[in-house]
Amino acid sequence: YSKPSGRGTFYSFDFQLRGIRVRRRSFATYDEAYAMLVRIRMDIFAGQYCPSDYFSQLEADVTAQTFWETYHLPYMRQRVKESTLYVREKALNKHFFSVMGRIKLRSLTTTRMNRFFTSLTNNGLNSSYQQTIWIGIKAMFKHAEELGYIDSQPKNTKPKRSYVVKRVLSLDEINRLFQSMIELEHELEVVNIVKFMFFSGCRLGEAIA
Question: What pTM value is reported for the model?
Fold first, then answer.
């Protein structure tokens, strides 16, 4: 089948034969895709199917870090806000690429990724930050699949966000807060911003703006 993309139209195939699922994407022409499909089917029937035989050395050996820097980062710069990409890149560099960056992209299986997220939890990383990492990794794998660097994405579920019930200050506590700010001689502008946030429900950035 064919699929249009930002790079033009590319051709792909997806089939299952004798219990083996095969997906290949990003062929430039129909004839190229068909020739590869026939070759793989013949090898399966002959009992000689080896997935790594059908990828170029570049595709087989590309690491997660290399794919991110060479292909995915420039791609995402055109599609998400700079602030979003900054947070995502910072999270992945610190927690993902420092551990998995040198591993071949095709070797990052579901099992391996499950162990990675389990290690994040065991190290005390909060679920909200894990979600940021998961979203970044998911987008990278999706892009890699579209470009044909992997057959399919690891099937890892999104980390569940843990919610903590926040305690609401009582009116007496609010009054004491305002009084202490006056007694400590905070600038009037600061006191007014805090009061405005309290009565309006605005966050700090919204109140300052």
Answer: 0.58
